[in-house]
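Exercise 7.
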Amino acid sequence: MTGKQASGLVHQARRLAATPVARAAVVEGSISFTHGTMVSKAVEQLPGTFTREQTSQAEVLLVDVASQGTPDEVTRAVPKIVEQLDPVNAEDLEARRLSRERDTAWQNRSLSWFTRSGSVVFTGSLPQVEGNAFTTLITAYSQQAKREARDTTDPAAEQTTTIQRHADALIHLVEDVQHHTAAPTLAGDRPAVMVTLDYEKLREGATRAGVLPDGNPLSAGDLRRVCCDATLIPVVLGSMSEVLDVGRSTRVVHPGIRHALTLRDQHCVFPACDTPASHCDAHHVIPWWQGGSTSVDNLVLLCPHHHGVVEPDKHATRDQWRVTIPPGGRPAVTPPRRLVGVGAVGSDRSAITIPGDPGPPP
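Solution. The predicted structure, written as tokens, is:
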């Protein structure tokens, strides 16, 4: 490996060595090296007021999260663990952490480039809110190119990789800015960053009230700022986390309904599939041709691959996967009858990978 790669690996190993519980779990093989380094990073985010005992307890809880979830879920678990270990001061501690994180991200913002072999190579870092807006735009252009590739007869277009489409997206974005052209749509709507707002917490002062679609919370300052930004869509939740006034049902999936689906499902609902909502289709559980309505309680998000797996057969000749939504519950996926011993599985991230599903194509 290069010197830079080796240096980075040594840095991660030193960080892991500072967290004995995570280090032991990595050595035992109960969690991966990546999970272990994320636990170490999460421990560094714990409040400075925590005692040594509280920090040790938090590390144990974080390792437990790492053993069951993805590396990203480890860092997202920090606020809940802080609240569990110090419920009295949790709100204030989390507000301070988010404020420090925002300040650090802003201080560390950067963009640099250099030329090499006829290319311009970029590297940089953006704060969370601004970075999310940027990646949303890039995804919109990328998805537009992917749709166009499916309709073209040019074999070369179908061989374009994801990172190549991202590069093409940045090129098109620059060209459109130069020509004052509007951005393409993403999942049926203009590219936008959706922020979930807890109504009661918003009334109390916006502490821990805002959450981005990827689950990352916003600082109070960021939330107050983005609430005034027309490019961000506030989806307000009531006291029971119900979606308030996002739009009425129509025959097609109205943008308001699409926002509500994104808020509820967050990704493809098929077990163990992490395809983000922006890359998913809105699937009618009871098909429109069978009298199903276009409403939140009859729609789920599915990636194109799993959409084909569960799409009902008009002639009922296929033994296939089915999706159901219990009243007031979350979508559940039921495997075909031929898969003996496997029951309905919810879309929670702890769901076990279901046998018989080959997964999306590479």
